[in-house]
């Protein structure tokens, strides 16, 4: 059985701008079957470059140091 993802907008991060060297916390709460895979990208579609070893994922919250 497949269930489309349900993304809870009130628990999801909106647009943000940060400078190099700053921290950002991105939150996306989603449910579905199979479990949705959350991918974050920059506004221009490019991947978010994360400094090696400074990535922590827990309970749908992604902590980045860029």
Automatic annotation (TrEMBL):
<dbReference type="InterPro" id="IPR051170">
    <property type="entry name" value="Neural/epithelial_adhesion"/>
</dbReference>
<dbReference type="GO" id="GO:0043005">
    <property type="term" value="C:neuron projection"/>
</dbReference>
<dbReference type="InterPro" id="IPR036179">
    <property type="entry name" value="Ig-like_dom_sf"/>
</dbReference>
<dbReference type="InterPro" id="IPR013783">
    <property type="entry name" value="Ig-like_fold"/>
</dbReference>
<dbReference type="Pfam" id="PF13927">
    <property type="entry name" value="Ig_3"/>
</dbReference>
<feature type="domain" description="Ig-like">
    <location>
        <begin position="5"/>
        <end position="66"/>
    </location>
</feature>
<keyword id="KW-1015">Disulfide bond</keyword>
<keyword id="KW-0393">Immunoglobulin domain</keyword>
<dbReference type="InterPro" id="IPR007110">
    <property type="entry name" value="Ig-like_dom"/>
</dbReference>
<protein>
    <recommendedName>
        <fullName>Ig-like domain-containing protein</fullName>
    </recommendedName>
</protein>
<keyword id="KW-0677">Repeat</keyword>
């Amino acid at each position: 059985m497949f269930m489309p993802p349900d993304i809870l907008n009130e628990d999801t991060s909106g647009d943000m701008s940060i400078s190099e060297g700053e921290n950002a916390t991105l939150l996306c709460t989603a449910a579905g079957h199979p479990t949705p895979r959350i991918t974050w990208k920059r506004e221009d579609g490019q991947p978010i470059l994360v400094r090696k070893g400074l990535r922590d994922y827990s309970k749908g919250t992604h902590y980045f140091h860029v």
